[in-house]
Structures are given as structure tokens and as C-alpha cells.
UniProtKB/TrEMBL annotation:
One BP annotation, GO: iron ion transport
Domain ABC transporter: 9-245
Membrane topology: Peripheral membrane protein
Alphabetical keyword list: ATP-binding, Cell membrane, Ion transport, Iron, Iron transport, Membrane, Nucleotide-binding, Transport
Subcellular location as annotated: Cell membrane
CDD domains assigned: ABC_Iron-Siderophores_B12_Hemin (cd03214)
Transmembrane parts of this sequence: none
Domain of life: Bacteria
Family label: Belongs to the ABC transporter superfamily.
Name of the protein in its database record: ABC transporter
PROSITE patterns found in the cross-reference section: ABC_TRANSPORTER_1, ABC_TRANSPORTER_2
GO molecular function: ATP binding; ATP hydrolysis activity
Pfam families in UniProt: ABC_tran
Length: 274
């Protein structure tokens, strides 16, 4: 596949191990600027680890990650946090914290020891809450929120960070269908209207195909394939990567491919696929 746009992030031959277990195995991945990249793959394949490595929360044993051509290891912690925001899986905070207090935490990378809370900080927090629709909930305690409300509050915190790159690890996990669409429509809006570069981990292949500009199949710690959803959503690749026997159709509303699983399929080797 031709590159969608110049890459903001380049992962080059990244190997990352937990003890003796290799989680990422010489993995390489370009993340195009101003596009939505969705990482998909079976449980334990390394998707979440890759996202955390991009944010330098995990250190690889070999390889490098470049941000605009600069190794992220050369950047200060706050400098990196001003450029890449991350919402990890199942984040937690004290239940008696208010929504506004949670969102204000997103301004941490912009704070200095002797620098007071500024008008700019307040404006960023307000924009983030309005954009996610939690401004009317700002005095509510997060322990009192529904799952969808809480997830929007966490996304607001990431938006208040005002980064050009936003990484979201399974942001629709545990949400019902309506709130899944609300969340992903918000992400798509940030991409279209604000030009944000988005990297998402999603388990639902049909949602991944619907929202992705670049879809990435991660398998056994490596990028097995990447491209447009129309290129990757094939029965052969789904059988290899997900061990699923599936029919592929075109969504009559959005024109994107959709997967209809028929059952389990024996994984095929790369040689058999080729």
C-alpha cells in the first residue's frame, strides 16, 4: 500500500520483552499524519504494549520509535506528553473526584512548579469538556457516572492535554452500541476537524473497518499486514490472524467491508496464504 501521508511516528524493528517472553518481535509500523490508524489482532498479540511503547511507558530492548524523525528517547517526559496523549485500558481515579478535577489532570504536561493555573489552562479544560459533552457533568463525582459518561470524561482529560497525536487503547470496551458510536464519532470528528493523528486499539473488526484510514493487523508480536480496510478484510487474512472463517460483505451505508463470522477456522501459515 502506498503511504497515506508523511509519518508522524515511525516504529522501527522494535523488540520488547517481558522477562523471557517476546511481546513485540522486530515490529515496524508507520503512523501517517492526520489519519486514523486502528490496531487490531487477537488477545495477547502486542497491541496494547505497542501503544504504551509509543508513549514510552514501555522500553524496548532493540529498535527505536521516532516522532517527527526524532527518537522519543531523546525527548523529555513533559515534552513527549505535550505531543502524544494516551488513554490506556481501564484507567482508574478516586471515585470522589469530580469530572472537572479529572479533566484538569490533562494539563499536567503544561504545568511548571512556579507557574500558576492560567486562563489558557482553563480554556483548554472547558473546550475538552464541551467537545465530549461532559461540561454539564463537571461537578459530578466520577464514581456516580455511567460507563459511557465516564469514558467521555477520560477522553476529555486526554483532549485537555492538547496533543496532536492521541492514542486510545480499547476506548469502547464495556460500552453499549450507542455509546460506542458516540465515542468513535467523537474521535473521527477530532481527526476530520482538528487534524489530529489518532491511533486506536479496537477488537470489533467491523468498527475498525468503518473508522480506520489505515488498518493494521498485529499477529504474534509483528505487523502481519497493514493497508486500507478494503485491502485487509479478506477471508484469508482473517483466517490466519484471527482463526475465524468469515464472509466479507460491503456495508451498504458506509461502503466499508464488514465481517460475518461463520465459525472458527484453523490458522493458515504465511506460506499457505501466499
Amino acid at each position: 500500500m502506498a503511504e497515506l501521508a508523511p509519518s508522524r511516528i515511525e516504529v522501527r524493528d522494535l523488540t520488547l520483552m517481558y522477562g523471557h517472553d517476546t511481546v513485540l518481535d522486530a515490529l515496524s509500523l508507520p503512523v501517517p499524519a492526520g489519519k486514523v490508524t486502528v490496531l487490531a489482532g487477537p488477545n495477547g498479540c502486542g497491541k496494547s504494549t505497542l501503544l504504551r511503547a509509543i508513549r514510552r511507558l514501555h522500553q524496548g530492548q532493540r529498535g527505536q520509535i521516532l516522532l517527527d524523525g526524532v527518537d522519543i528517547g531523546a525527548l523529555g517526559a513533559k515534552d513527549l506528553a505535550r505531543q502524544i496523549g494516551l488513554l490506556a485500558q481501564s484507567p482508574s481515579a478516586p471515585p470522589d473526584m469530580s469530572v472537572e478535577e479529572l479533566v484538569r489532570l490533562g494539563r499536567y504536561p503544561h504545568q511548571a512548579m512556579l507557574q500558576p493555573w492560567s486562563e489558557k489552562d482553563g480554556a483548554a479544560v472547558n473546550r475538552a469538556m464541551v467537545g465530549t459533552g461532559v461540561d454539564t457533568l463537571k461537578h459530578r463525582r466520577i464514581g456516580s457516572l455511567s460507563g459511557g459518561q465516564l469514558q467521555r470524561a477520560w477522553i476529555a482529560m486526554v483532549l485537555a492535554q492538547e496533543t496532536d497525536i492521541i492514542c486510545l487503547d480499547e476506548p469502547v470496551n464495556h460500552l453499549d452500541m450507542a455509546h460506542q458510536l458516540d465515542c468513535l464519532d467523537l474521535v473521527a470528528k477530532l481527526n476530520r476537524e482538528a487534524g489530529r493523528t489518532i491511533v486506536l486499539v479496537l477488537h470489533d473488526l467491523n468498527l475498525a473497518a468503518r473508522y480506520a484510514d489505515q488498518l493494521v493487523f498485529v499477529h504474534e508480536g509483528r505487523v502481519r499486514a497493514l493497508g486500507r480496510p478494503e485491502e485487509l478484510m479478506t477471508p484469508e487474512l482473517l483466517a490466519e490472524v484471527f482463526e475465524v472463517d468469515a464472509a466479507i460483505m460491503t456495508d451498504p451505508v458506509h461502503g466499508r467491508p464488514i465481517c460475518i463470522p461463520r465459525g472458527r477456522a484453523k490458522a493458515k501459515s504465511v506460506r499457505e496464504i501466499a
